[in-house]
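re: that chain from earlier
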Amino acid sequence: MKSRNLATKPQNIPRDIQEEIGKNGPSFVEIHERAREIHIERGDHVCDLDNYLDEWLQAEHGLKEKYSKSSSE
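^ sequence. v structure.
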Protein backbone atom coordinates (compact mmCIF):
# COMPACT_ATOMS: atom_id res chain seq x y z
CA MET A 1 0.00 0.00 0.00
CA LYS A 2 1.26 3.47 -0.91
CA SER A 3 1.94 5.81 2.02
CA ARG A 4 0.15 9.14 1.96
CA ASN A 5 2.10 12.32 1.55
CA LEU A 6 1.57 14.23 4.80
CA ALA A 7 2.50 17.52 3.15
CA THR A 8 -0.81 17.53 1.25
CA LYS A 9 -2.92 17.39 4.41
CA PRO A 10 -4.17 20.85 5.45
CA GLN A 11 -3.60 20.18 9.15
CA ASN A 12 0.13 19.73 8.43
CA ILE A 13 0.52 23.23 6.97
CA PRO A 14 1.43 25.91 9.53
CA ARG A 15 -1.58 28.09 10.47
CA ASP A 16 0.15 31.35 9.47
CA ILE A 17 0.69 30.03 5.93
CA GLN A 18 -2.95 28.88 5.70
CA GLU A 19 -4.17 32.32 6.80
CA GLU A 20 -1.82 34.19 4.45
CA ILE A 21 -3.04 32.21 1.46
CA GLY A 22 -6.67 32.99 2.32
CA LYS A 23 -6.35 36.76 2.84
CA ASN A 24 -7.38 37.92 -0.66
CA GLY A 25 -8.72 34.73 -2.10
CA PRO A 26 -9.40 31.10 -1.35
CA SER A 27 -7.78 29.55 1.70
CA PHE A 28 -5.41 26.61 1.54
CA VAL A 29 -8.14 24.37 2.96
CA GLU A 30 -10.68 25.51 0.33
CA ILE A 31 -8.24 24.79 -2.48
CA HIS A 32 -7.32 21.43 -0.99
CA GLU A 33 -10.98 20.40 -0.65
CA ARG A 34 -11.78 21.48 -4.21
CA ALA A 35 -8.73 19.60 -5.52
CA ARG A 36 -10.00 16.48 -3.73
CA GLU A 37 -13.44 16.96 -5.34
CA ILE A 38 -11.82 17.23 -8.77
CA HIS A 39 -9.76 14.10 -8.03
CA ILE A 40 -12.90 12.14 -7.10
CA GLU A 41 -14.84 13.49 -10.11
CA ARG A 42 -12.08 12.14 -12.37
CA GLY A 43 -12.49 8.73 -10.77
CA ASP A 44 -8.91 8.59 -9.55
CA HIS A 45 -8.28 6.47 -6.50
CA VAL A 46 -4.49 6.66 -6.35
CA CYS A 47 -2.72 9.73 -5.02
CA ASP A 48 -0.27 10.73 -7.75
CA LEU A 49 1.68 13.94 -7.18
CA ASP A 50 1.58 14.88 -10.88
CA ASN A 51 -2.19 14.57 -10.94
CA TYR A 52 -2.48 16.26 -7.56
CA LEU A 53 -0.57 19.29 -8.86
CA ASP A 54 -2.87 19.53 -11.89
CA GLU A 55 -5.94 19.20 -9.68
CA TRP A 56 -4.55 21.75 -7.22
CA LEU A 57 -3.88 24.29 -9.98
CA GLN A 58 -7.31 23.72 -11.51
CA ALA A 59 -8.97 24.15 -8.10
CA GLU A 60 -6.93 27.25 -7.27
CA HIS A 61 -7.70 28.87 -10.63
CA GLY A 62 -11.42 28.16 -10.37
CA LEU A 63 -11.68 29.45 -6.80
CA LYS A 64 -9.66 32.59 -7.58
CA GLU A 65 -12.06 33.33 -10.45
CA LYS A 66 -14.99 32.80 -8.10
CA TYR A 67 -13.46 35.16 -5.50
CA SER A 68 -12.67 37.84 -8.06
CA LYS A 69 -16.22 37.74 -9.47
CA SER A 70 -17.78 38.00 -6.02
CA SER A 71 -15.50 40.90 -4.99
CA SER A 72 -16.24 42.87 -8.17
CA GLU A 73 -20.01 42.64 -7.74
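DSSP finds three helices and no strands in the chain.
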